[in-house]
Structure prediction request, 134 residues.
Amino acid sequence: MNKALSMLAVLAVSAFTFSANADVKKPTLVCNFTEPFIQIVVLAKTQTIGTVGDHVALRSPGEDTVMGAIESTSVKGGVNTWKLSGEGLDQYVLDIVFGKKGNDGMSDKEYEFEGILRTPDDQFVLYGGCDLVK
Prediction:
């Protein structure tokens, strides 16, 4: 009886999540970097990517996923700069160059945009590529 009730609850939550997300398409930006291997996923809260409060996840092999958000944004010279916030993300800035193709440095894959993960003082700079998933 408890197992059947648990299954019903899981199905109900899954159906609610699907129907809630089916109404509005929110873009997601996925950026990949190598040496070290880092993936950043930015999930828009609205229909526009790169606004303050958008969710950010940083993943690296063998490490826990770090969650945070975009704290501030600016645009200068065709580069969108997003200051990240959250435990473990406060040290990073993500630059998205929307007019330039990106490359992860390990494959022949060409990404839609160049991504640059860096510290605000540029002591650490990592180039990669980003794709927008709609």
Residues 1-22 have pLDDT under 50 and may be disordered. The longest strand covers residues 66-76. The beta strands are 28-33, 38-43, 55-59, 66-76, 79-85, 93-97, 113-118, 125-133. The CA atoms of residues 26 and 46 lie 6 Å apart.
